[in-house]
């Protein structure tokens, strides 16, 4: 199977080392979950968190095509939706670039057109 960075995959823990856990993704592919990627909190030892034979979901962090090594993260799958990083995507529209995020907020941002009357009044007030 061809894996991509950011892809959510499932596998079986096949080995535990002090620096991480090895995960069998398919018959021919194995990846490493580094100890820092087991969960977002500090852990003393990988075997506190994972056991050989556990089936876990992980996110592909990095793929080194030269050495055929795949870095995986379990931490990313455990984060709450509010703790996940904001993803910004550019979408072209009639020559203009619009930015969309996965972060929904209902405060704090107004366009310059909407803010212009208030900004003008503040600037004129400073000139008096």
Automatic annotation (TrEMBL):
<dbReference type="InterPro" id="IPR003029">
    <property type="entry name" value="S1_domain"/>
</dbReference>
<dbReference type="GO" id="GO:0006412">
    <property type="term" value="P:translation"/>
</dbReference>
<dbReference type="GO" id="GO:0003735">
    <property type="term" value="F:structural constituent of ribosome"/>
</dbReference>
<protein>
    <submittedName>
        <fullName>S1 RNA-binding domain-containing protein</fullName>
    </submittedName>
</protein>
<dbReference type="Pfam" id="PF00575">
    <property type="entry name" value="S1"/>
</dbReference>
<comment type="function">
    <text>Binds mRNA; thus facilitating recognition of the initiation point. It is needed to translate mRNA with a short Shine-Dalgarno (SD) purine-rich sequence.</text>
</comment>
<dbReference type="GO" id="GO:0003729">
    <property type="term" value="F:mRNA binding"/>
</dbReference>
<dbReference type="InterPro" id="IPR050437">
    <property type="entry name" value="Ribos_protein_bS1-like"/>
</dbReference>
<dbReference type="InterPro" id="IPR012340">
    <property type="entry name" value="NA-bd_OB-fold"/>
</dbReference>
